[in-house]
């Protein structure tokens, strides 16, 4: 039986939509064959725990990229807000106050990013790069460049090291954040507006959508989730470093793009971002288990980002041309 052109196109689209899942499964199988330690329960739990911090940041990044923008300040926000939280705790402030101040700091930094991008017309890459530099400089001035140490025990320590039915608490936070973002993007008016703005900002504006508000909103959410990731990180480590967030921005962007979110905006899903996060984490975990040099890991990560972004851009361009 011969298929017409439309049916062939639909099948190609269906295969491409599940390509990242198929690739992830094949990657896990290959790594499992190379090192049997990969599929041990202890390693799986460690992999999920390590994925959670980048994953929380990547979920916030998903909304930003869906709107047609980038946020490279997420690592700086995570490090800064983590340092703010630890600094307050070290001086005897109650845990709820320290947590609230950290989250508000991240939310404010993200909102400022959104205002600069939406109202001043500064490209998101430049605006967020400036924010990251500003935050890094500010926290280095406050701390003198030295880490701020605290306790990994008590209620605060449970955030990064606790378990619920043997499931690490950071993983539970990651799951809840993912489900919340998925529901927001798929089933709320403002979530659908994010897709619309990323797909065609001018048409969205002509339809009455307040595009500036949508941009500010997604950057604010990204900042808030980055600060949450920063709190989880310092709870797990028991120390806050001014440079603790280095590399998280590129890892988050790579995870979102590998998960199928278009770098041009308008296409993607929070659930697929999870696959992208796990994909990157499995690669890191495999390199560690196999004893591959860290410098090679950076090379591979860079190649993955280039290939993922290139494939996304090419597919979008080809679809538009068709």
Protein model, in words:
- This protein is mainly alpha-helical.
- Helix content is 77%, strand content 2%.
- It has 14 helices and four strands.
- Helix 4 (74-90) packs antiparallel against helix 5 (95-118) and helix 12 (248-258) packs across helix 14.
- The radius of gyration is 20 Å and the shape is globular.
- Residues 5-15 have low confidence and may be disordered.
What structural class is derived from the secondary structure elements? mainly alpha
Radius of gyration, Cα only, in angstroms?
20 Å
Q: Averaged pLDDT, please?
A: 86
First-residue to last-residue Cα separation: 25 Å
Number of DSSP-assigned strands? 4
Order of helices and strands: HHHHHHEHEEHHHHEHHH
Helix residue percentage: over 70%
Instruction: Count up the helices.
Output: 14
The largest β sheet comes out as: 2 strands, antiparallel
Strand percentage lies at under 5%
Which stretches of 5+ consecutive residues score pLDDT under 50?
Answer: 5-15
Principal-axes geometry comes out as globular
Strand order of the largest sheet: 1-4
Give a quick rundown of the structure:
This protein is mostly helical and 322 residues long.
Give keywords.
mainly alpha; 322 residues; 2% strand; two-stranded antiparallel ribbon; 4 strands
Secondary structure: elements and pairs:
Blueprint: H1 5-17, H2 19-34, H3 41-66, H4 74-90, H5 95-118, H6 124-143, E1 148-149, H7 154-161, E2 163-164, E3 167-168, H8 169-187, H9 189-199, H10 201-206, H11 211-237, E4 239-240, H12 248-258, H13 270-290, H14 294-321
Antiparallel strand pairs: 1-4, 2-3
